[in-house]
Amino acid sequence: MATTVLVFHPHLADTSRVNARLLAELKASGASDVTVRDEYALYPDFRIDVKAEQAALERTDRIVLQFPFYWYSSPALLKQWEDEVFRPGWCYGGGHALDGKTLRLVVTTGSEAAKFQPDGAYKRTMDELLSPFEVVARRIGLTYEPPFLVQGCATIDEAGLDEVAKAYVKAIAG
Ligand SMILES: Cc1cc2nc3c(=O)[nH]c(=O)nc-3n(C[C@H](O)[C@H](O)[C@H](O)COP(=O)(O)O)c2cc1C
Protein backbone atom coordinates (compact mmCIF):
# COMPACT_ATOMS: atom_id res chain seq x y z
CA MET A 1 0.00 0.00 0.00
CA ALA A 2 1.51 3.30 -1.08
CA THR A 3 1.02 6.23 1.30
CA THR A 4 1.46 9.89 0.38
CA VAL A 5 1.71 12.49 3.14
CA LEU A 6 0.91 15.98 1.91
CA VAL A 7 2.14 18.47 4.50
CA PHE A 8 0.70 21.98 4.57
CA HIS A 9 2.79 23.98 7.03
CA PRO A 10 3.98 27.46 6.03
CA HIS A 11 6.92 27.34 8.45
CA LEU A 12 8.00 23.71 8.39
CA ALA A 13 11.67 24.54 7.92
CA ASP A 14 11.91 27.27 10.56
CA THR A 15 9.43 27.58 13.45
CA SER A 16 7.72 24.18 13.34
CA ARG A 17 8.53 21.98 16.31
CA VAL A 18 5.84 19.29 16.29
CA ASN A 19 5.24 18.67 12.59
CA ALA A 20 8.96 18.86 11.87
CA ARG A 21 9.58 16.26 14.59
CA LEU A 22 6.86 13.91 13.31
CA LEU A 23 8.30 14.06 9.81
CA ALA A 24 11.87 13.58 11.03
CA GLU A 25 10.77 10.46 12.91
CA LEU A 26 8.98 9.18 9.80
CA LYS A 27 12.09 9.74 7.70
CA ALA A 28 14.32 8.05 10.30
CA SER A 29 12.02 5.01 10.31
CA GLY A 30 13.07 4.34 6.72
CA ALA A 31 9.49 3.39 5.94
CA SER A 32 9.19 2.22 2.37
CA ASP A 33 6.20 3.15 0.27
CA VAL A 34 5.69 6.46 2.09
CA THR A 35 6.19 9.68 0.14
CA VAL A 36 6.16 13.10 1.78
CA ARG A 37 5.28 16.23 -0.16
CA ASP A 38 6.00 19.60 1.46
CA GLU A 39 3.32 21.64 -0.28
CA TYR A 40 4.37 25.09 0.93
CA ALA A 41 7.91 24.40 -0.28
CA LEU A 42 6.55 23.26 -3.64
CA TYR A 43 4.22 26.22 -4.02
CA PRO A 44 5.49 29.20 -2.01
CA ASP A 45 3.66 31.48 -4.45
CA PHE A 46 0.40 29.45 -4.23
CA ARG A 47 0.66 28.57 -7.95
CA ILE A 48 -0.31 24.92 -7.64
CA ASP A 49 0.68 22.45 -10.35
CA VAL A 50 -2.71 20.74 -10.55
CA LYS A 51 -1.59 17.99 -12.92
CA ALA A 52 1.37 17.08 -10.68
CA GLU A 53 -0.87 17.00 -7.61
CA GLN A 54 -3.47 14.84 -9.34
CA ALA A 55 -0.74 12.46 -10.56
CA ALA A 56 0.62 12.16 -6.99
CA LEU A 57 -2.84 11.27 -5.73
CA GLU A 58 -3.45 8.79 -8.54
CA ARG A 59 -0.17 7.00 -7.71
CA THR A 60 -1.07 6.40 -4.05
CA ASP A 61 -3.51 4.25 -2.09
CA ARG A 62 -3.57 6.23 1.16
CA ILE A 63 -3.73 10.02 1.20
CA VAL A 64 -2.63 11.80 4.37
CA LEU A 65 -3.23 15.52 4.78
CA GLN A 66 -1.07 16.89 7.58
CA PHE A 67 -1.30 20.44 8.93
CA PRO A 68 -1.18 22.64 12.01
CA PHE A 69 -4.62 23.88 13.07
CA TYR A 70 -4.92 27.56 12.11
CA TRP A 71 -7.97 29.43 13.33
CA TYR A 72 -9.92 26.21 13.84
CA SER A 73 -9.25 25.23 10.25
CA SER A 74 -6.33 24.55 7.92
CA PRO A 75 -3.60 26.84 6.60
CA ALA A 76 -4.75 28.69 3.47
CA LEU A 77 -2.81 26.68 0.88
CA LEU A 78 -4.71 23.51 1.75
CA LYS A 79 -8.04 25.16 1.00
CA GLN A 80 -6.76 26.46 -2.32
CA TRP A 81 -5.28 23.02 -3.08
CA GLU A 82 -8.69 21.39 -2.55
CA ASP A 83 -10.41 24.01 -4.70
CA GLU A 84 -7.99 23.50 -7.57
CA VAL A 85 -7.09 19.80 -7.44
CA PHE A 86 -10.54 18.27 -6.87
CA ARG A 87 -11.87 18.95 -10.36
CA PRO A 88 -15.22 17.82 -11.79
CA GLY A 89 -14.74 15.00 -14.24
CA TRP A 90 -11.64 13.90 -12.34
CA CYS A 91 -12.76 12.92 -8.84
CA TYR A 92 -16.47 13.74 -8.93
CA GLY A 93 -19.08 14.78 -11.50
CA GLY A 94 -18.41 11.71 -13.62
CA GLY A 95 -14.77 11.29 -12.57
CA HIS A 96 -13.61 8.47 -10.30
CA ALA A 97 -9.83 8.99 -9.96
CA LEU A 98 -9.84 8.66 -6.17
CA ASP A 99 -12.45 5.94 -5.69
CA GLY A 100 -11.38 3.30 -3.17
CA LYS A 101 -8.48 5.31 -1.69
CA THR A 102 -8.41 6.46 1.92
CA LEU A 103 -7.99 9.88 3.52
CA ARG A 104 -6.48 10.44 6.93
CA LEU A 105 -5.86 13.81 8.54
CA VAL A 106 -2.94 14.51 10.82
CA VAL A 107 -3.68 17.71 12.73
CA THR A 108 -1.64 19.43 15.41
CA THR A 109 -3.29 21.95 17.71
CA GLY A 110 -1.72 24.45 20.07
CA SER A 111 -4.60 24.08 22.54
CA GLU A 112 -5.17 20.97 24.59
CA ALA A 113 -7.88 18.41 23.80
CA ALA A 114 -10.09 19.41 26.76
CA LYS A 115 -10.87 22.73 25.11
CA PHE A 116 -12.37 20.94 22.09
CA GLN A 117 -15.31 19.44 23.97
CA PRO A 118 -19.00 20.46 24.11
CA ASP A 119 -18.38 21.77 27.64
CA GLY A 120 -14.87 23.06 26.88
CA ALA A 121 -13.70 26.57 26.03
CA TYR A 122 -14.41 26.22 22.30
CA LYS A 123 -17.74 24.31 22.62
CA ARG A 124 -16.93 22.30 19.49
CA THR A 125 -15.25 18.94 19.04
CA MET A 126 -12.44 18.25 16.60
CA ASP A 127 -14.80 15.93 14.69
CA GLU A 128 -17.20 18.85 14.23
CA LEU A 129 -14.47 21.27 13.22
CA LEU A 130 -12.91 18.78 10.78
CA SER A 131 -16.25 17.65 9.35
CA PRO A 132 -15.82 19.50 6.01
CA PHE A 133 -12.93 17.14 5.24
CA GLU A 134 -15.07 14.14 6.06
CA VAL A 135 -17.87 15.31 3.77
CA VAL A 136 -15.43 16.14 0.97
CA ALA A 137 -13.90 12.67 1.31
CA ARG A 138 -17.30 11.04 0.94
CA ARG A 139 -18.14 13.28 -2.04
CA ILE A 140 -14.98 12.30 -3.96
CA GLY A 141 -14.90 8.58 -3.29
CA LEU A 142 -12.42 8.47 -0.41
CA THR A 143 -12.85 6.47 2.79
CA TYR A 144 -12.32 8.86 5.70
CA GLU A 145 -10.21 7.35 8.46
CA PRO A 146 -10.18 8.71 12.03
CA PRO A 147 -7.79 11.67 12.26
CA PHE A 148 -4.46 11.44 14.06
CA LEU A 149 -4.44 14.38 16.45
CA VAL A 150 -1.59 15.89 18.38
CA GLN A 151 -3.08 18.35 20.86
CA GLY A 152 -1.59 20.64 23.44
CA CYS A 153 1.40 21.38 21.21
CA ALA A 154 1.94 24.71 22.98
CA THR A 155 3.01 22.89 26.13
CA ILE A 156 4.07 19.40 25.01
CA ASP A 157 7.41 18.34 26.51
CA GLU A 158 10.17 16.32 24.87
CA ALA A 159 8.99 13.02 26.36
CA GLY A 160 5.43 13.66 25.13
CA LEU A 161 6.73 14.60 21.71
CA ASP A 162 8.81 11.41 21.55
CA GLU A 163 5.75 9.34 22.37
CA VAL A 164 3.46 10.96 19.78
CA ALA A 165 6.17 10.82 17.12
CA LYS A 166 6.43 7.05 17.59
CA ALA A 167 2.64 6.64 17.52
CA TYR A 168 2.53 8.79 14.37
CA VAL A 169 5.05 6.59 12.55
CA LYS A 170 3.06 3.51 13.53
CA ALA A 171 -0.18 5.10 12.29
CA ILE A 172 1.25 6.31 9.01
CA ALA A 173 3.79 3.64 8.11
CA GLY A 174 2.83 0.71 10.31
C1 LIG B 1 -1.95 31.65 12.48
C2 LIG B 1 -2.08 30.60 13.56
C3 LIG B 1 -3.34 30.20 13.96
C4 LIG B 1 -3.48 29.22 14.93
N1 LIG B 1 -4.74 28.80 15.27
C5 LIG B 1 -4.89 27.82 16.20
C6 LIG B 1 -6.20 27.36 16.55
O1 LIG B 1 -7.21 27.79 16.00
N2 LIG B 1 -6.30 26.38 17.50
C7 LIG B 1 -5.20 25.85 18.12
O2 LIG B 1 -5.34 24.97 18.95
N3 LIG B 1 -3.94 26.26 17.77
C8 LIG B 1 -3.76 27.23 16.85
N4 LIG B 1 -2.51 27.65 16.48
C9 LIG B 1 -1.33 26.96 17.06
C10 LIG B 1 -0.79 25.89 16.09
O3 LIG B 1 -1.82 24.99 15.70
C11 LIG B 1 0.36 25.11 16.73
O4 LIG B 1 1.36 26.01 17.07
C12 LIG B 1 0.91 24.06 15.79
O5 LIG B 1 -0.06 23.08 15.50
C13 LIG B 1 2.12 23.36 16.39
O6 LIG B 1 2.78 22.63 15.36
P1 LIG B 1 4.23 23.06 14.81
O7 LIG B 1 5.17 23.04 15.99
O8 LIG B 1 4.55 22.05 13.77
O9 LIG B 1 4.09 24.45 14.23
C14 LIG B 1 -2.33 28.64 15.53
C15 LIG B 1 -1.07 29.09 15.14
C16 LIG B 1 -0.93 30.06 14.17
C17 LIG B 1 0.46 30.51 13.76
UniProtKB/TrEMBL annotation:
Pfam families listed in its UniProt record:
Flavodoxin_2 (PF02525)
Q: By its UniProt entry, which InterPro entries does this protein fall under?
A: Flavodoxin_fold, Flavoprotein-like_sf, KefG/KefF
Cite a single GO MF annotation.
NAD(P)H dehydrogenase (quinone) activity
Oxidoreductase keyword on record: yes
What are the alphabetically sorted keywords of the record? Oxidoreductase
Which residues belong to any copy of the Flavodoxin-like fold domain? 1-170
Task: Write the signal peptide boundaries.
Answer: none
Superkingdom per UniProt: Bacteria
From the Swiss-Prot or TrEMBL record, give the protein name. Answer: NAD(P)H-dependent oxidoreductase
**Which organism is this protein's natural source?**
Bifidobacterium pullorum subsp. saeculare
Recite the lineage of the species.
Bacteria, Bacillati, Actinomycetota, Actinomycetes, Bifidobacteriales
